[in-house]
């Protein structure tokens, strides 16, 4: 574990913010979006990300140019097991390590996003720096149903922020999900011609974007590829990110038909969003946040596991008219064709969905979380001085 240098001159240094959101992309990406917003608001801010060796943060945080401190992971067992017996020891170890980090960077505020590192971060902040003051906490909940770590953290947090009003946490301020600026600042109309040329689509094409997260989604892959002939016959082009470990069973390409562009992974989601008129995707919190932030209507297919939070994530935009919900069990080639073709061939309906999707987004979420963090940190520092 790296050690930050301790600065005892509390009033003369920049604000020190610790971001606790390691594990999955759904925890790391919002934290990095807030980090970027913090730096834009206060160039002197010191930003430290807290993570574990097993999380995506070991790659994503250094890529974004931020400091990363590693602690022991504290996975919370969903069912009674031997891991549950070892949990108290793991929590104590992680809290001790986290307190060392908070002391080392002289933290002014902890912003937690849930996940493996959030619980020890909340508990360490509540216990205070080694021999010194407590550290105020800001909690952000991205999902429609709050996890255990954030439910614990929210009890003593100075501010509780959420993507939706009914996440199960009390006294929340709804700010949306923080999304990186390269997405929130995207002008789809201005970039459309370049984006479509990049993927080989005609400038006036009707484009369906298909993706299932970084690893793809097998049920979505099967259903959309099964609808390939019907989509082509309707004049619809497809950009399909199927996942690096997956392949698609596509019919032989017809040189006269609109292109079906299949790729393992999309490095430039901004170009993909700009090229598309409609998306088929899962409804994880980050996916819904990005798709609505750019005003792209979507057919959401919630992942059929967990506690149903993916369905809940999509409901606000669906209820607003910016998307549709299709259950994974109902997904088939016929379902895709019957749903997609009427949308992409009806200009007025597509325009209405696009407008509704745009109004459902929260493109300023990262900035709002960053502003709250700085406000809490400055108030705490003023009180301590």
How would you describe this protein?
The chain is elongated and about 70 Å long. The chain is an alpha/beta fold and 385 residues long. It has 15 helices and 13 strands. The chain has 2 domains: 16-179 and 364-384, Glycogen Phosphorylase B (Rossmann fold, 3-Layer(aba) Sandwich), CATH 3.40.50; 182-360, Rossmann fold (3-Layer(aba) Sandwich), CATH 3.40.50.2000.
Into how many domains do the coordinates divide?
Answer: 2
The residue fraction in helices comes out at 40-55%
Q: SSE order in H/E notation? A: EHEHEHEHEHEEHHEHHEEHEHEHEHHH
CATH topology of the largest domain: Rossmann fold
Q: If strands are numbered along the chain, what order do they take across the biggest sheet? A: 3-2-1-4-5-6-7
Counting helices, strands and paired strands, the structural category is alpha/beta
The count of strands amounts to: 13
Query: What profile does the largest beta sheet have?
Result: 7 strands, parallel
What low-confidence regions span 5 or more consecutive residues with pLDDT below 50? Answer: 1-8
Give the N-to-C terminal Cα separation.
Answer: 30 Å
Using the 3D structure, state the CATH architecture of the largest domain: 3-Layer(aba) Sandwich
Radius of gyration: 22 Å
Envelope shape: elongated
Pathway: Cell wall biogenesis; peptidoglycan biosynthesis
Protein name: UDP-N-acetylglucosamine--N-acetylmuramyl-(pentapeptide) pyrophosphoryl-undecaprenol N-acetylglucosamine transferase
Binding site for UDP-N-acetyl-alpha-D-glucosamine: 24-26, 143, 180, 214, 310
InterPro entries: GlcNAc_MurG (IPR006009), Glyco_trans_28_C (IPR007235), GlycoTrans_28_N (IPR004276)
């Amino acid at each position: 574990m790296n050690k930050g240098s301790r600065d005892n001159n509390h009033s003369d240094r920049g604000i020190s913010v610790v971001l606790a959101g390691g594990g999955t992309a759904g925890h790391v990406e919002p934290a990095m979006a807030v980090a970027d917003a913090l730096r834009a608001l206060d160039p002197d801010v010191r930003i430290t990300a807290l993570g574990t060796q097993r999380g995506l943060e070991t790659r994503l945080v250094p890529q974004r140019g931020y400091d990363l401190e590693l602690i022991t992971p504290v996975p919370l067992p969903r069912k009674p097991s031997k891991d549950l017996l070892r949990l108290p020891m793991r929590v104590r170890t992680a809290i001790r390590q986290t307190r060392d980090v908070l002391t080392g960077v002289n933290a002014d505020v902890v912003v937690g996003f849930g996940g493996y590192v959030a619980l020890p971060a909340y508990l360490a902040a509540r216990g205070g720096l080694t021999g010194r003051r407590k550290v105020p906490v800001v909690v952000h909940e991205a999902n429609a149903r709050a996890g255990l770590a954030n439910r614990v953290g929210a009890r003593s947090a100075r501010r509780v922020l959420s993507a939706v009003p009914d996440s199960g946490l009390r006294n929340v301020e709804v700010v949306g999900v923080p999304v990186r600026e390269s997405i929130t600042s995207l002008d789809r109309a201005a970039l459309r011609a370049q984006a479509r040329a990049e993927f080989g689509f005609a400038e006036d094409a009707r484009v369906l974007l298909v993706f299932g997260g970084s690893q793809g989604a097998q049920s979505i892959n099967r259903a959309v590829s099964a609808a390939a002939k019907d989509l082509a016959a309707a004049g619809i082009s497809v950009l399909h990110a199927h996942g690096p470990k997956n392949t698609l069973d596509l019919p032989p390409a017809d040189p006269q038909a609109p292109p079906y562009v299949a790729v393992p992974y999309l490095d430039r989601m901004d170009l993909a969003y700009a090229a598309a008129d409609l998306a088929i995707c899962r409804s994880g919190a980050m996916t819904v946040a990005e798709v609505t932030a750019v005003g792209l209507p979507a057919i959401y297919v919630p992942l059929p596991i967990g506690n149903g939070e993916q369905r809940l994530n999509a409901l606000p935009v669906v209820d607003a008219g910016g998307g549709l919900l299709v259950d994974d069990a109902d997904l088939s080639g016929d379902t895709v064709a019957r749903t997609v073709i009427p949308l992409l061939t009806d200009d007025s309906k597509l325009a209405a969905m696009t407008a509704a999707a745009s109004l459902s987004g929260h493109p300023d979420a990262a900035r709002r979380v960053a502003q709250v963090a700085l406000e809490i940190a400055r108030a705490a520092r003023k009180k301590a001085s």
